[in-house]
Specification:
Length: 420
Amino acid sequence: MRAGEATSAFAKPYRPAAIALANRLGRLLRLERRPITLDGVLSEARRKAKMSDFGDDAFLEPLEVLVDSINREAALNPVGRTIIRGRIVGVLVNKLVAHDTIEKHPEILDIPVEEPIVVAGLARTGTTMLHRLIAQDPAIRSLASWEAINPAPRSAHPPGKGRDPRFAQAAKAAKGLKYMSPGFFAIHPAEPDAPEEEVILLEQAFLTTTPEAMMNVPTYSKWLETQDHTPAYRALRQMMQYLQWQRPGPGQSVRWVLKTPHHQEYFDTLLELFPDATIVHTHRDPLKTSPSLFSMLTHLQMIFSDEVDPNRVASHWLYKIERMARRAMATRERVRDRGFVDVSYYDLVKDPMPEVRRVYEQAGLELLPNVRSAMEASRRVNRQHKYGRHKYALEDFGMTKDDVEPRIAAYRARFGVPYE
């Protein structure tokens, strides 16, 4: 596979030589057969953090279900197992450090989190573009990629003392991802200095769809749908306060811009924790966005497993798309669209600035000339297809229009989404 090319041909996972060798050596040592254990990740996190108090034990059941599902169903290769286990330990270390810091600085929980702008639409509907534009406003706080990779460092970087060392950590992670899957950047760029999705912060409660995006964990996925997600959104709010304490905004009152498709499934819970949010609901023809998402997630899962079935990925995520759309429509019906603003992908691509202005008006903000200029400059840098073109089609996943359209017809009618 050439750098900058994302293909929809999934006959054989791409493996650079070093990764292929590491997997071969790992199999000789039977690393992929060693289960990830709850006690093991908890112990390692406590050892790394040199702390023991997580603050609560509500996360233990979700983590136990996740670990069991990974061991029985994910079919991780040795490198994938190492990465996934490391991610779990990393989340736990951050959880320990954040709790310890908040215990020492209880004033963190008094920091207001008011009137966030939340960009949430089906994946591949322009959410990244809109999120990055709004994040150019110096008066609006976003989660930086270099913060997301380690939101609770052992020692906070003193302000004004140069670039935060986490930036180098994020740059290394982005370089590693690009090495393991060169085409992934053409689908979803992961730049260390760019705004990142806060779905990563929901992992503090281990109640998030992130695992099912990265690997095959159907037991965990089904269990997740039956759970109350309030602890996850409470953890998100607390981490926003914690991050705001680490890196305050320019004024007394800080507005956040958030973004992740995950929220559509849990708009009700989001609005319980952020009742004054402005929710930007983006829309694009699901017949185009669905295979794009299937391709992105297949590429992602192939990093961690050699046994990825693209048709299985597509079937699972088509179900998720239908569920997200249905649940989002139910919330909007309940609140009578109060607090929501709809944005068409096609209007956004044609000229995003009128759409940004509409969002600002809904949020009660003024789009200042200097902010508009910063957004325009960002558009020139973050142009479409910056890292290459993403090629995909429903046929790559054993599907046709007739398989998808009935599942999303109600959503298309409700929001007047055109065919592309």
